[in-house]
Amino acid sequence: MAKLIYMMNISFDGYTQDEHGDFTFTAPIDPAVHTFIFQHASSFRTLLYGRKVYETMLYWETAHTLPDQTPLEIGFARKWQAAEKIVYSKTLTEPHSANTTITQSFEPEAIRNLKANRNHDIAIAGPELAAQAIHAGLVDELQMRICPAIIGGGTRFFPTGVRLDLQLIEDRQFRNGEIFLRYAVNNQSK
Description:
CATH superfamily of the domain at 1-6 and 22-121 and 135-157: Dihydrofolate Reductase, subunit A
Number of helices: 6
CATH class of the domain at 1-6 and 22-121 and 135-157: Alpha Beta
Helix content: 25-40%
Pfam family, one: RibD_C
Low-confidence stretches: none
Order of helices and strands: EEHEHHHEEHEHEEEE
CATH architecture of the domain at 1-6 and 22-121 and 135-157: 3-Layer(aba) Sandwich
Number of strands: 10
Radius of gyration: 16 Å
Mean pLDDT: 94
Distance between the termini: 20 Å
Protein name: Dihydrofolate reductase family protein
Strand order of the largest sheet: 5-4-3-6-1-7-10-9
Oligomer: single chain
Structural class: alpha/beta
Largest sheet: 8 strands, mixed
Domain Bacterial bifunctional deaminase-reductase C-terminal: 3-176
Shape: globular
């Protein structure tokens, strides 16, 4: 059975983007962070996205054609293109990338079936989409890259009204002050 892993970049004060939708504070500058994030994120073969995250990630559909791409970036682009992508959106009517399905509503039972029928872990990204999965008790692991920035408000990584018992699985610190954390979810509110 696959695990559902909520993975996002966040500010030190727990936001995925600021009040204006800006998330440039998450751009990895340190080459060690860049390499780690690309290698880690490219391991997922099934990706569940909200519309905004999907539209941001669409860059990777054609990134391999752009000049000055590193082998790491080209490799990530190829793996992203090959991954199964399920996008939850009420406004998108058709996909803009290969291996992509658009669905209008989040159905917990569909995610349970997806987890039961995959032999690899599934990433979920987008705080609103992940909140639905957390509230439904479907998220098995949280992964966050904490960036050394306080942005004072915006879209929160964690939904309100949820209590989770977490167990630290991995922590990694980088020279630029970034921290990568992985937590297993021991109990899930339903």
